[in-house]
Write a structure and sequence with these properties.
Blueprint lengths: L5 H11 L6 H8 L5 H14 L3 H25 L23 H16 L5 H17 L5 H24 L8 H8 L11 H23 L3 H26 L1
Helix pairs in contact: 2-6, 3-4, 4-5, 4-7, 4-9, 4-10, 5-6, 5-7, 6-7, 7-8, 9-10
């Protein structure tokens, strides 16, 4: 369990105890924009009605991965919420504090949107992410280190998802890790990805997320986290194994 440190306590008191007139309602509404359930609903609609279905699917996959990872880490670390915190319905019987899922989701969406929707939206999406993170402290449901860890984990998950999408030949756009990988000569064997490869990838992906979710919901958090990591590694290896098989 992570102990409460003076910086966390001080920042919570500064942000939460000093209410800004007119901002209570704003942050109470705005914080829900960082909810994984809300974002999943939005990108599912975008997948059904929008033109960029592949990009929408990448967002949905990232949200599913992120939700499982966040719940696993929370229940392994088991850091209590700030005193008096009132939270909504959790996926597990006890909803802990570290890391903040809202901050993780907001920064993950921002990192993905900055790449897939263009640089002109970068400032807007990161302002959105920062406001969601601040709202969690303003409402008194997270400490500074909770939202900081959530922001970092969200960006890392986004980068890893973009790397997997790039190496699997789903998109030419990628994040920093994918860009470095391409400079090092690590590129997708085929682009665009064959339909049969995508089908195999989806089967591995959703079966893996399903098994990890079952492990999470039955309290096997470390097993769930390890398995989700293994699924990710299988997805990374898939295009290269497929290329050898077809060759």
């Amino acid at each position: 369990m992570i102990d409460l440190n003076p910086v966390d306590q001080y920042m919570l008191e500064v942000i939460n105890r000093n209410e800004i007139p007119g901002f209570d309602g704003f942050f109470r509404v705005f914080t829900h924009l960082g909810s994984a359930a809300f974002c999943l609903f939005v990108f599912t609609l975008y997948f059904l009605a929008g033109k960029q279905k592949l990009v929408a699917a990448i967002f949905i996959i990232a949200l599913l991965f992120g939700t499982v990872i966040n719940e696993d880490i929370k229940n392994i670390v088991q850091r209590d919420r700030p005193e008096g915190a009132v939270v909504g319905i959790a996926l597990t019987p006890v909803n802990y504090s570290f890391p903040s899922q809202h901050a993780q989701t907001a920064f993950m969406i921002a990192a993905l949107a900055a790449v897939y929707f263009g640089i002109k939206y970068r400032l807007i999406v990161y302002i959105f992410a920062i406001l969601v993170a601040v709202s969690r402290m303003y409402l008194g449901v997270h400490y500074l280190t909770d939202v900081a860890a959530g922001a970092v984990s969200g960006i890392i998950i986004a980068e890893l998802v973009m790397l997997a999408a790039y190496l699997n030949g789903l998109t030419k756009d990628t994040g920093i890790i994918g860009y470095v990988a391409s400079l090092a000569g690590l590129r997708p064997p085929t682009y665009p990805a064959p339909g049969s490869q995508m089908l195999v990838g989806l089967i591995i992906l959703f079966a893996g997320i399903g098994i990890s979710s079952i492990a999470m919901l039955t309290g096997q958090y470390a097993v769930s986290l390890v398995f989700i990591a293994l699924v990710y590694l299988w997805i990374l290896e898939l295009p290269f194994v497929y290329a050898v098989y077809k060759g």
